[in-house]
Amino acid sequence: MTSTVESRSEPVGRGASSGLAAAARAPGWARYALLVAGLAVALWLPNGLYPAVAVDILCWALFAVAVDLLLGFTGLLSFGHAAFWGTSAYVTGLVAIHLGLPFPAAVLAGALAAAVLAVPIGYLAVRRTGIYFAMVTLAFAQLVYYVANEWRSVTQGENGLQGVPRELFGLDLTDDYYFYYAILPIVLLGLAGAWRIVHSPFGRVLVGIRDNPARARALGYPVHRYKLTVFVLSGFLAGLGGGLFAVSHRFVSLEVLHWTTSGKAVIVVVLGGIGTLWGGVLGAGILVRLEDWLSFSGFEAIGLVTGGIFVVVVLLFRRGIWGTASALARRRWGRRD
Amino acid sequence: MTALLQSTFNGLVSGAFYALLALGLAVIFGMLRVVNFAHGAFYMLGAFGAYVLLAEAGVPFWVALVVVPLALALLGMALERAFIHRLTRLDPLYNFLLTFGLTLILQDLVKLRYGVQSSPYEAPAGLRGSVDFGLFDFPTYRVFILGFAVAVCVGVWWALARTRVGMIVRAATERPELTRALGINVGRWITPVFGFGIALAGLAGVLAAPMRAVNPLMGADLIIVVFAVVVIGGLGSIFGSVAAGFGIGMVQAWAEAYLSAFPIVAQTIVFIVMAAVLLWRPAGLFGRAEAPA
């Protein structure tokens, strides 16, 4: 009876926007303290964790932030972001193997390829919204998966690309510990870029589109073009993560394009907190660490655990970890807004 | 000519699966505004249910065809009450995410118990062999699937068009607020309709058991194609979903038969058609346009 049209169309992540605004209004020292703490954790990470896991966390953090840029700040759930992550992984791998470029250049090439792929997919997908957008992106990602599976001369099919080099001007990066610090600047640059997008006038318009597309259109904003732009930017960021993932594993398999990879990125974002940006980083840390621990202890049904956690989060903690924590912090210390 | 008939027939058979799954998705979507990601998982459970009943209890196909969809309908209704129901007032994306989580759980539960290898399931005695239609022979079991699926679709259409429950469902699909205002208890029908949609997925699964490899992942790839099918047909239109299901089945079979030089086209034609539909009629072939966004 009380279910009105308004409550039904309440966009995902809207609750978080007030949190974001509150964070912007939080005292300056608190923000700097968080930033310093975050950087300290990033610098310490491979000392406290198995370095290969720490590297994976960085890659997935970029992926999650890319997905959150769409889901949390534009209200578009992409369930096919593996298309960009995976395409970049393959292009990065091919460039690194055949041209022998330093890995940052190969990753850049991969991310650009992902962004180029995001143009046609985004152009078609933004013609639908909501749940249809999710289904359409999922379907296009599956198309990319089939093409990669069939195009064996380039992708090596089931065997995958093997021996992706970690070339950087002759430096020895075979140890994951040093490789972590080699990719950390790239990852931080990507995260800073995402922060810049969200806090730019462009990002404000995106949030406006998310909350009320009709009003944004009435104000004269070309809604489709804004959505397409952020979709391509998000594809680039996901590609950055995917390219680094390929170099770090020195191997690219079809799994990088599979729908389960898209789904995992969404899980990471929801777990961390939709529309919180840094929540995705936190979610990546938790999920990658948990999966590593589960597979290390020989537990086969990882989906049982991740799916279970996901169901609990969606049912009970829709703000995710970051969103819940910042809401609690605000209630405890913050002023009323 | 014979080749064309043959591929058309095969296309209609695989289209029958798309149509049954798309029909269930559309009925659920109409009533609950939920896109059920777990639909593929329930299809898989249907096939596994038939397999387990036969292998471990000797229950024949015909019994499974009735029992398994009913059991899955109960499971679906329980899940609707326990989880989905709690999120229906929120953005529909949350239920999409929830059912995605349920998919991972259901898939891995089956994987834990039965592994990932495919299990064999033989067609029932009366449906082996083939039927001679003059021009060439059709496998009996496939003829049965096609006839059965068409009968189910016609039956659902009849129920929606002619029965009182069907009218309530259609009214609640088109104008939920107005239907409530007219004094009809829409909420009462939500859980049964969800269960019914799940039963259709389970039915498709039982039908698939003798024809396709029974394994825990059989539903996952299929559901993505079915999503493309409902985008093409327009999820708001029940007729459109069924028509798109059979149509895509045929287009796929023709692509396989006549573009065999390009296997990639046959595999991906459904997504190519979806792209064309998004360009030409973004709301789907039979859908109504959404409010501009």
Give the SSE map.
The complex is a heterodimer of chains A (337) and B (293).
Chain A (H helix, E strand, L loop, with lengths): L4 H4 L5 H12 L2 H21 L2 H24 L7 H18 L3 H23 L4 H21 L1 H4 L5 E2 L13 H23 L2 H11 L1 H6 L4 H27 L1 E2 L6 H14 L5 H19 L5 H15 L3 H13 L5
Helix pairs in contact in A: 2-16, 3-4, 3-9, 4-9, 4-12, 4-13, 4-14, 5-6, 5-7, 5-12, 6-7, 6-12, 9-12, 10-12, 13-14, 13-16, 14-16
Chain B lengths: L1 H31 L6 H19 L3 H27 L4 H23 L15 E3 L4 E3 H23 L1 H11 L1 H6 L5 H22 L9 H16 L4 H21 L4 H18 L13
Antiparallel strand pairs in B: 1-2
Helix pairs in contact in B: 1-5, 1-6, 1-8, 1-9, 1-10, 2-3, 2-4, 2-8, 2-9, 3-8, 5-6, 9-10, 9-11, 10-11
Fraction of residues in β-strands of chain A: under 5%
- The CA-CA distance between the termini of chain A, in Å, is 30 Å
- Biggest β-sheet strands, sense, barrel of chain B: 2 strands, antiparallel
- Can you give the helix content of chain B as a percent range? over 70%
Q: Give the rounded overall mean pLDDT of chain B.
A: 87
The overall average pLDDT of chain A, rounded, is 85
Rounded to the nearest angstrom, the distance between the terminal CA atoms of chain B is 47 Å
Number of strands of chain B: 2
Secondary structure tally, helices of chain B: 11
Topology order of chain B in helix (H) and strand (E) letters: HHHHEEHHHHHHH
Instruction: Order the strands across the largest sheet of chain B as they lie in space.
Output: 1-2
SSE ordering of chain A: HHHHHHHHEHHHHEHHHH
By secondary-structure content and strand pairing, the structural class of chain A works out as mainly alpha
Radius of gyration of chain A: 20 Å
Key traits:
heterodimer, A: 337 residues, mainly alpha, two-stranded antiparallel ribbon, 16 helices, 2 strands, 76% helix, 1% strand, globular, B: 293 residues, 11 helices, 74% helix, 2% strand
